[in-house]
Description:
alpha+beta, 24 strands
Amino acid sequence: xxxxxxxxxxxxxxxxxxxxxxxxxxxxxxxxxxxxxxxxxxxxxxxxxxxxxxxxxxxxxxxxxxxxxxxxxxxxxxxxxxxxxxxxxxxxxxxxxxxxxxxxxxxxxxxxxxxxxxxxxxxxxxxxxxxxxxxxxxxxxxxxxxxxxxxxxxxxxxxxxxxxxxxxxxxxxxxxxxxxxxxxxxxxxxxxxxxxxxxxxxxxxxxxxxxxxxxxxxxxxxxxxxxxxxxxxxxxxxxxxxxxxxxxxxxxxxxxxxxxxxxxxxxxxxxxxxxxxxxxxxxxxxxxxxxxxxxxxxxxxxxxxxxxxxxxxxxxxxxxxxxxxxxxxxxxxxxxxxxxxxxxxxxxxxxxxxxxxxxxxxxxxxxxxxxxxxxxxxxxxxxxxxxxxxxxxxxxxxxxxxxxxxxxxxxxxxxxxxxxxxxxxxxxxxxxxxxxxxxxxxxxxxxxxxxxxxxxxxxxxxxxxxxxxxxxxxxxxxxxxxxxxxxxxxxxxxxxxxxxxxx
Length: 503
């Protein structure tokens, strides 16, 4: 009898669904995925003007349960039945979670002292999406050093709702700085079907682990298994960010949060130009100095052209401090420098790599247009001082040179002391960009060509050009005639003949 009643009920629900769809045309389709706690994923087209109760009515026949027994979860919150879809900050192919939520047997008393009806309970189930709640709390305006204070709301709520509250670097596919969205999952099982026990109030709540607990609705989560619970299995929230500029690529789609870039809700003038901009960067100093993004990019560009970025010893990053000279103000999330142009960021990465090599006791390949970082060997039982003097640019241009004079490897003493491309020159504060200076010498073009296309004879140092043929070289200088290997730049041996006679 129950089976027959179930069939009749489902048939009626399907008819009502057809009638309901017939009356409501989808004028602006929003395609989303809905994951259920049974393991299935449904694709549903929604109208942004619909509410969550409508979504439950659509899912009820497919999940085989009454609409009032369905709970919709998104971004760490159970959504109100009356919540309008367009208020949830959903994008194309976003993911909602639908789980079974049995109706309460006991009617709680509300703040007026009146016991609400079942219908009232159903309509009031849930809360605002987490992103919307954080927007109300001016989450981005909370100082990092004051985790317990919440600033007042912005006066213009409508304008604030359209403003980006989080910024991220999207490595794929945007490859740029974009507005971001905050999301949350269970730190134990990775499921997004969680509701947070409290809203995050500061960046440490989001960036540091085990700050906020969650209730996980995933049936397979270890916390839902009886007699299998311990203190180290508390379901904490794992917050992450997504790019708001492109279609969602699932729950594994993440972006790097740029927590120093914030909406200027307090209307603070820029440290440099004194203009009040909508979006600013707040330096991580005690004074929290503010600069607009245009001035920050100019600050980075000037320091980059002068090679005046600093090496943060505590993190090993090549970075910048607050321009006001504040202590402990290094930018420790270097993706903030993605605000630079791609060419400038490539130069920043190259300078940072070179600085790291030089500080580690290394040197840079002196061959033009190479500059590969090399960590030279040190004398040991197996290596003599002469062996260590011979350096090969492995992984770069392959150039073999003398570590002392930075010229092509040679036998005997160096003709001149080390003077070319020394580490002290590379780390100087001179305001000429080395990458441009080496190409700006009027009479040096021919010298550069000779350096790139020739190698010196290891014995007499006569520049020699190889125009094809094998690696066996014979110096043509009168009175020399030294036989040497083009690759090793050492005397020609049977090992050279066997290993790379013809390259």
